[in-house]
Amino acid sequence: MTDTTRTIIVAEAGVNHNGKLGLALELVDRAAEAGADYVKFQTFKGARLACGTAAKADYQKVTTDAAETQLEMLRRLELSPEAHRALIERCAARGIAFLSTAFDLESLAFLAGELGLKTLKLGSGELNNGPILLAAARSGMQLMLSTGMGSLSEVEEALGVVAFGLLRTGTPKGRTDFSEALLDPAAWSALRARVTLLHCTTEYPAAVEDTNLRAIDTMRQAFGLPVGYSDHTQGNAMSIAAVARGARVIEKHFTLDRTMTGPDHAASVEPGELAALVRDIRAIEAGLGDGIKRPGPAEIRNRPIVRKCVVAARDIPAGRILTLDDLTSKRAGGPIPAMALWDCIGRRSRIALAEDTALDWSAMAWAD
Questions:
Q1: Which fold has domain 297-366?
Q2: What is the DSSP letter of 127?
Q3: What dihedral angle (degrees, nearest 10) is formed by the CA atoms of 111, 114, 117, 120?
Q4: Which tens digit of pLDDT belongs to each residue from 107-123?
Q5: How far apart are CA 178 and CA 125, in angstroms?
Q6: Which tens digits make up the pLDDT trace of 201-226?
């Protein structure tokens, strides 16, 4: 992520394939057509992710069979290794990068080892999952880490785990090892080279008033790392605002049809909305500029037309010593800017000037 002017756009297909490879492949196609940089799925083994007694979140009870357990739902939404390879092949054919979130150590090893992915996403639920953070750090992959549900101190501790994994070998003896790892002079340069944090509100859909986009600035200032935004709100406004605040990555859930049954469809945008988001983000990037306040080429062409210059407020005879009453400012394309009106007072007009004539320095001389 060396280009600081281009926002990486991740189309989060997630589990919106409903466990069907054909639907997942179509999600790849639509994400590519929308112009996203990545299409992201989720890699997990249901039995390694949740216990049989684990409850569903409220939003999952509304959008899926309420009688189904979380484990049953997850098993139904798993993607097989063969499905992953088929998706990677389709991504290559469509010119979009494949990305996935690992939810357990076995899945992380599969993404890093068998599939050889260069980038890994970890969801907000892993922010305090030391073992998977350590494995991610040692996987060699670039890491996008969502920070939903977390405090600034929890984000710092997670970064300590990653720093420990990047800089040290062996097994940590305890949590103090992580805080000590951050004191290593090499820690922050190593983290900057490998980690992007994602601000996130872990609710589906998330309310706009719970978004707190200023946390993007807070994390960037606190840690000096690139920060993006994983958007769970409805619509595109918060993603667009996040880019304007400097988000380096935008992750947005998308689906083929928001009315489909499944845990994440209702909080997702449809393909047309995703394409609009990509267009708007690229327009914002073009408009942000370099921050130097100066006139652009079009403005320079317009300055003589729009800006006012010094003109005669009334007919002025040759030889008259100019007073304030002789002068005014209007649009006339003259060479003396209105800011210099007072510099003309006390000079003698060399020639007669009709009212509304633009003054020129060569037509004036200092009075004797």
A1: Type Iii Antifreeze Protein Isoform Hplc 12 (3.90.1210)
A2: T
A3: 20
A4: 999 999 999 999 999 99
A5: 19
A6: 999 899 999 999 999 999 999 999 99
